Inverse folding.
């Protein structure tokens, strides 16, 4: 693509969203039996809850009768009842089980069980309620669902933590910020992480991750296994084990960054997602697990404290960027540090167009300073 390109030439319309995939709606700990809560995914109002049998569910927060939000009604642990006319729905499939206003004679002509409110597949993984958001016109029952994302763990004993932050930008800016390799020494300056003076040249190898069976649904790319940078303090802590340290980073459509660090029997893994809330806002969620120093008292609280500060630095930067983006400036992407962003946009457009084409024909070497 040359030394630089205009962002608008590769990104496509900023409001294009990738439907037909799993997105984390909220922390599963927020779902209580008999209680309802709401979230917004890809601009869709979603009602979530937990049935008496422990199963989580997700519905469009809309009664198909008169359009009132179902969240205005009641949930008894088994069915969701609309506040307006008392229609009652089984939440996992959306099937209507009762219309109180029908007389016995009217029930012979109108079977409530043939009416459905919109319900989405919903599964609990790694402390999140993941919701499958189908494409428009996909029908009530979606078959051949992709596997629900899950953080890999490499031992039976480990600690874990979760982080979340709202971002005032569209999902594209959130994602290319997520995979940006050059902002670390500037955005994440801290005594416990790195300094601006630590910047140096890096060489990384990348390879394509293809998904031909699903028409590129889970396509992406991998930063191949490598020794992590020595200018980040947390990586230096692993040096006490005296084993070689390797890091692998995957980016997978539509929005997932998976990092795995191995040091002999010790490991750390994190799954970061950027979820579109609306066409102009998104949310970053991080779940991490590790067996490094898991025996240290308060290690989870300590990790969460510093992790939250790290994510807050990204959040503050995106808030400041949003101020500049209000004037609709012409933006650019350069080589090599912005190549992952170019690949993301190419993969996204390929999926939207259904071509399945991958921007990487094979392994690629990129160089930048960070």
């Amino acid at each position: 693509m040359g030394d630089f390109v205009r962002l608008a030439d590769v990104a496509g319309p900023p409001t294009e969203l990738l439907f037909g995939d799993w997105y984390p709606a909220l922390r599963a700990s927020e779902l209580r039996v008999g209680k309802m809560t709401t979230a917004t995914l890809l601009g869709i109002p979603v009602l979530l809850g937990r049935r008496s049998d422990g199963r989580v569910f997700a519905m469009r927060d809309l009664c198909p009768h008169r359009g009132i939000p179902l969240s205005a009604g009641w949930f008894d642990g088994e069915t969701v009842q609309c506040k307006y006319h008392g229609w009652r729905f089984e939440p996992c499939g959306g099937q209507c089980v009762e219309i109180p206003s029908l007389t016995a004679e009217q029930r012979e002509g109108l079977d409530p069980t043939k009416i459905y409110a919109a319900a989405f597949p919903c599964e609990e993984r790694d402390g999140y309620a993941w919701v499958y958001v189908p494409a428009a016109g996909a029908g009530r029952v979606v078959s051949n669902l992709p596997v629900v994302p899950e953080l890999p763990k490499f031992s039976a004993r480990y600690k874990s933590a979760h982080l979340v932050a709202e971002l005032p930008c569209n999902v594209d800016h959130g994602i290319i910020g997520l995979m940006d390799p050059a902002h670390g020494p500037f955005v994440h300056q801290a005594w416990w992480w790195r300094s601006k003076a630590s910047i140096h040249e890096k060489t990384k190898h990348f390879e394509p991750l293809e998904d031909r069976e699903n028409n590129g649904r889970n396509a992406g790319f991998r930063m191949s296994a490598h020794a992590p940078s020595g200018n980040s303090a947390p990586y230096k802590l692993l040096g006490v084990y005296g084993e070689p340290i390797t890091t692998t980073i995957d980016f997978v459509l539509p929005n997932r960054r998976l990092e795995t660090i191995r040091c002999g029997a010790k490991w750390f893994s994190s799954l970061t997602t950027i979820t579109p809330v609306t066409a102009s806002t998104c949310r970053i969620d991080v779940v991490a697990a590790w067996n490094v120093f898991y025996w240290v008292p308060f290690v989870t609280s300590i990790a969460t404290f510093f992790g939250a500060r790290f994510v807050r630095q990204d959040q503050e930067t995106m808030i400041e960027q949003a101020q500049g983006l209000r004037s609709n400036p012409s933006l650019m992407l350069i080589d090599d540090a912005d190549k992952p962003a170019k690949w993301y946009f190419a993969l996204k457009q390929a999926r939207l167009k259904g071509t399945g084409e991958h921007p990487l024909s094979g392994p690629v070497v990129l160089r930048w300073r960070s």
